[in-house]
Predict the structure.
Amino acid sequence: MKIEILGSGCAKCKQLEERAKEAVEKAGLKASVGHVHDIDRIIAMGVFSTPAMAVDGNVVLSGSLPSVNELVAILRSE
């Protein structure tokens, strides 16, 4: 599983990245978590509100900062 945090690197984007890492660990998943800062790539993925998160290339959330438990639920459904 490849998780990408999409955003410029603002405080909320960094928080989402940390929460995603914690959610991966909590869910016991094998996944990599990376951060995409390239605005052109983010827009090409159809994201206009950050922070956002993509799993295996599919955007699963945009414009919100869910809790770790909410992220666990999202990741388990992917």
Notes: The chain has three helices and four strands.
